[in-house]
Amino acid sequence: MKLNIALLAGDGIGPEVIDQAVKVCDAIASKYDHEITWKPALTGAAAIDAVGEPYPDETHEICASSDAVLFGAIGHPRFDNDPTAKVRPEQGLLKMRQKLGLFANVRPTFTFPSLIDKSPLKRDRIEGTDLIILRELTGGIYFGERGRKDDNHTAFDTMTYQRFEIERLARKGFEMAMKRSKKLCCVDKANVLESSRLWRETVQAMEKDFPEVTVSYEFVDATAMRLIQWPKGYDVIITANLFGDILTDEASVISGSMGLMPSSSVGSKVSLYEPIHGSYPQAAGKDIANPLATVLSAAMLFEDLALTKEAEEIRRVVNKSLAEGIVTEDLAEGGTSYKTSEVGDWLAKNI
Ligand code: IPM
Ligand code: MG
């Protein structure tokens, strides 16, 4: 297969982890006879520095005309500590999600047999966890009206949802549940928020179209507790943008490290694949960041293109590296650790 993949390394450790994913994809391409053309493009602080804008039109053109987008991370401390900054790297991420129509963010949570004891949670609670948080990604409080008033003494952000936005996300959730254990949980805050009541009403009305799926409804505060208390109680969770942002960071604790969790963002056109971790600026340029979340995001990319053998091969080699201790320092627990680039080389060599 011929593949054009837009490559958005971004900021911080983005370029380093992306390099490893490229090595792995290239190894897969040569083993399975594919031809990947990488199309590098600027985003985030790197793009602000180069052209004054975190998601330039040129980058959008490249993404929109590719078969998929592989993305590293966005964000720079220079902007975090400056609340007055007019342009922020994260705006690029939001603009990209919106312009590419990436309304559903798929964030799986699973455990790795060799890492169960790395999680701060007890083995019997987490072993065998296999859930997906499907986060709405182009609406809600991230995109609602926001601003200042009262002479700058009041600030507001608005959580707005339209029925069609909830429906298209929920449909994906139902479809996913149908392919898995047929359990769907809608997470909201319907005891307080009107937008959440619209979520509940909309999802309830869709239940009749998917009679085999058992749907439950939970308030997000309760889910925050149950998710780490008994993660095996969940299969597919659908939720709003902000709730999903928070719950997916929480869920990463189950797997033992944020550095392991991949994601895909899908919509009507091209899909995007990225690790759920951020740009981890403290580690930038040190060749110490864990590349596995990005490598596993590449596995999701192949999976979505129906290249299942390729995806499985990546997962196999990642599990092998973990089992053999070819890991970056975050997983080494003071033992032998490998550089980001060494892990990438090892993975590519073992494909
Ligand atoms: C994520 C990140 C982003 C988000 C930030 C960097 C804007 O936390 O992808 O989860 O909040 O969506
Ligand atoms: Mg987040």
Would you write up a description of this structure?
Helices cover 43% and strands 20% of the residues. With 351 residues, the chain is an alpha/beta fold. The protein has two domains: 1-110 and 259-351, Isopropylmalate Dehydrogenase; 120-254, 3-Layer(aba) Sandwich (Isopropylmalate Dehydrogenase), CATH 3.40.718.10. The chain has a ten-stranded mixed sheet, with helices on both faces. Helix 2 packs across helix 5. The longest helix has 19 residues, at 14-32. The radius of gyration is 20 Å and the shape is globular. The two termini are 18 Å apart. The relative contact order is 0.17. The site of magnesium ion has 2 residues, from helix 10. Residues 245, 249 line the site of magnesium ion (MG).
